[in-house]
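Risk register update: the risk of archive-format incompatibility is retired. Evidence:
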Amino acid sequence: MEVAGTLLNASNLEPIKGMMVGLHSNLEDSAFTKLPLDRVARTDSRGKFRIKGVAPGSYRIYGLQDADQNFAFSQKSEALAFSDSLVIPSFEQRMHYDTLWVDSLTIDTIVSHNYTHYLPDDLVLRAFQEEINTQYLIKNERLTPEKFTFYFAAKADTLPTLKGLNFDENDAFVIESNPRNDTIQYWIKDSLLYKQDTLRLSLTYLYTDTLNQLIPRTDTLRLIAKNVNKQQHSPKKNKKNKNEEEETPQTVFLQVTSKASSAMDVYDYVSFTFPEPMTTIDTSAIHLRLKVDTLWKEVPFVFEQDSVNLRKYNLYYDWDFKQEFELLVDSASMYGLYGLHNDKIKQSFKIKNEEDYSSIFFNVSGATPNAFVELLDGQDKMVRRVKVKDGNADFYFLNPGKYAARLINDTNGNGIWDTGLYEEKRQPEEVFYYPQLLEPKANWELNQDWNVRATPLDKQKPEELKKQKPDEEKKRNKNESRDNNRR
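Archived output:
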């Protein structure tokens, strides 16, 4: 017998080349983790596999990125795939037709041939890597005197507890962490403290022991400052001219990255990103002016700290099409943690016209209640995300260009794609692609019906988006490139 199908990356339906696919006649779930696979094959450049020499019977089928080459799922770091259904090989007789030609226009004879076709031949496996929850401290670093960082192996619900051994840790830091709490930065407030070459501290955090249980662990650490730059926060001096008796200090300003495109999207906002935490921002020194006829009128706005990045602040306003604005920020209105202040900022921008945009409206069927759709660019990167409401996923105010779409059946409703877990026999959340690229023009509206299960999963992702190209296409492109170079 033979068993055939396709193996795809569960998160983006990308074909996976060179991954092992195998069968187990032992139907126990533990067989995959303890016993070697009975019959195996490897996927080709299209993600296709064909397992030959299979005896009649019932099997479980698995995919495995076998890191330790023991033909079993023995490491959490190994990518895997499994099917919820049993595989029962079978065969049937089919007819194949050959056409014999007298010449290029005239058919002589059509010859029929019987052959044996093996089933199933359309299995689809979705490969994933389990989330590694083993918690430990990967490393710590203090690349500059003012800041040190801890890197952990897994996300955490709480921050670690820090106690200074040669300093008082109370109100000594501004703590910046990412949403997973696996990268935590401590910005030292007091200059007397960050000027110390070595900081000694104890760090208490949750650690995964040999029984896979989280237990408190305390490490004693010595943080030595690297890349010490004594002139980092001191004013620079200009070179002395012949007619000058004294050197003139040059002001060092706080570096502010302000994002305000000259052609602003109507849904966008102005952002300010700083190299260090801020102590003072005087919003009365920030002026947003709207051009009314030939005059500039100051308008109110909303200014908020970003919910994810504490060193980023956003300015919001209810923009309207074709409006012109001027943004002014007075000097010394924004002070960083280490005493530097901003230089004067002045930017002008205009809101795009309504006719510059396009829209795409999806009428979705076959999705679960918590599904959401991600609009993608031509490189498979997310542009925007909306939840499916009443079977609709609407994208307004799009810039003309090529777009793809990906739908995620968000089973747990947390707003992100979640991987699977073999121990609980939990598959990764389902992902579907709209099977073609869309290219709306300016001032266009596209209405697209999308049944996410109408097209087989292995044929959904548009070829233009696939990073894993078939070997024959790579060879053809290589030959074409070689011929062009010769010319």
